[in-house]
Amino acid sequence: MKKDLLMWDETLFRDPEVFEIDYVPEQFNFRETQMKELAFQIRPAIRGARPLNTVCRGVPGTGKTTSVKKLFAEIEETTKKIVPVYVNCQIDNTKFSVFSQVYRRLSGHLPPSSGTSFKQVFDAIARMLQKDEQVLLVALDDANYLLYENEINRVLYSLLRSHESYPGTRVGVILIVSDMDVDIARVVDARVSSVFRPTEIYFPPYTTEEIRTILGERVLQGLYPGCLPPEMFDLVVEQTQKSGDLRVGIDLIKRATLSAERRASRKIEKDDICGAYRISRYIHLASSIKTLKPEEKSLLKALAEHAARGGEMSAGAVYKVVKEETGLGYTRFYEIVRKLDAMRLVNLEYRDGKGRTRVITLRYNPERVCEYLT
Questions:
Q1: Residue at 250 is within a domain
Q2: What's the pLDDT tens digit per position in 252-311?
Q3: Contact 95, 155 (CB under 8 A)
Q4: Is residue 27 part of a domain?
């Protein structure tokens, strides 16, 4: 029996980095078509022209971010003419913070956190681009987070019309959108749409066999042989397919392996996988809540508690209840609800009746939302 137990200094992980969500694999399968389309979109920049703008659309965990990061890595290895900048809009979701990331990529450091205007940052970016005659290519990941307070129009307008204030600057944009309900063409205003005009690249969900191949490569690279038996790997694939998100499967393997190590077992068992899935399937919920500000968390908690009590979820009825708990004015209340809708934490829909009533529904179990908020 002892041979089946791990010693205190042993591990099942050959390379734990393989199971990190932001890991970019060397071998990247089943997205060749999308990669070729992306490469075509940026080809004009190699000749010093403005890249074509792109929207990468698909449900979470379909390879959009990895495709862009792989492309950006190739650009950095092959040319200095293009400056690729990746921005995670879950974290940087204001015009100033987006341009601060561009400034950091060009200068090596962020602009001063206080006493610096947006114009000063923008001027410095333009001067650096003009000086080195470089083309700027900005990827805005999870761009639906910019829908809050209309930041998406402010960001795109400043980027795509920069040549009007700074002749010679050339900028292209890649929007990565995981919410299939967001119609970018209807979201952006006329002054942006006239210069944006993107090509849309669709990333379909992975098939069961594609999931099996991708996860199999991660297991081969990241775990020692034999620690994930074939029947247990089949269960991981099944759970991943059920969730519809490849990231769930990657996180599931990591957590199940840690669970087996905790038991000092050399093999991952069904209880390890089932226990891990109960956490991994909420990966989007957990990561999204971490980015919320305190007042946004307070409102989400109030919404979850109200939903758990079975209360009426029209915007007006909810506001009457949460007003006393949060102290928010109605305008601010509705702004935050719209942000939570853009983040895919709630659904904000209209119901016809006496006029059009806005109805709020949680996308997750109320008890689970409250659990991740504590």
A1: yes
A2: 999 999 999 999 999 999 999 999 999 999 998 998 999 898 999 999 999 999 999 987
A3: yes
A4: no
